[in-house]
Design brief:
8 helices; nine-stranded mixed beta sheet
Amino acid sequence: MRKGKLISWLRTNGRAVLAACAVFLVFFLLYIHSVSSQHPSTIATLSIPKGTSLLATAQTAAQNSAKGSIATTSAATTASSSSLKVASASTFKNPSPVSQTISTTTTNAKALVSSGGRLLGSIVNIVCISSVPQVPSISGSGVIIDPRGIIITAAHVAQLFTLEDYLGDGKVACLVRDGSPARRAYYAEPIYVSTSWIHANPKTLESASPQGTGENDFAILGITDTATSTPLPGRYSYVPLASGDPQVGDPVAIGSYGAQYLTASEVNTGLYPILVFGSIQDRYTFHTNTVDLISIEGSAASQEGSSGGGITNAQGGLIGVITTSSVSGDFSGRFLNAVTINHIRRSYAADMGANLDSVLQNNSVSGLINNFAAQSKSLGQFLYENL
């Protein structure tokens, strides 16, 4: 009799119990972060041993024992909680105090869970395999930001697409994967790779630990074809670009295809997406009064392979693209940095003299790719000549 009553109760209240568990999980994750001193951060792509082909089926590959990393400069100065941190040498004081109080309402928690679910369905794994001795093969992340199949990622990931365009003959072959585990899915071409970032960082591919801040480190790709026998979908799951500046204390969802602890063979066959929740600890500016970079501590997404991954707010908008992170020590002591969407908008406007949102909205994917094709090859040539 008691068993029957329990089953009846669960049938009536099961959804409410599951919702309560989800809310509890979100807030548990939001408050487990431990505060630690910052460590040098790295560009979080994953280097893959030569001879590995992630474009094919499962195969054996050697353990990746030498992972290239890009550390951010340590010039940023710590300021009060109500100010931005400057990635150069000075601190910008916010005109008004920024509250660090995290909302604890059920509505916000449910919205964040929903936002995380949408992010999980929109992140992709980007792999580029190189047969050129000077060019490493890499695994990174990206986020689909448009239902037509437009992907945003980090420039230090997408720079290999420009080499693919310039070198030709399959010397560098890039592929977009999705799913859990990641499986080959699409081919893509550059819509935009930051010229400013490429010209300022021409040696990142060959350096063991090149320096950088993440400034201008973003790129946009367009899906062009299926990489399987499955036709392209009519509409892709996506996360729209957010408007406005993120605030210290804002709860966020973080998604990527982190792969630091996997062998190349495991990246090939057993790479799963990461979805974690957290809150914004710090904000940085590359100039004087703009919110250009956000920092989050204690995240499992702080690992190699997460570069190009996304951060969304409770409203479901993409607020940042992961560029750098610390990759050593316990996850509770790590941090990751992401360039803000408004920084990306400003950087694109300065580089191309156009409004990013308008350009994406008013052009077809094929048109966007064709418009950038010559510049992509030029950037690839520049990179190759600097190897």
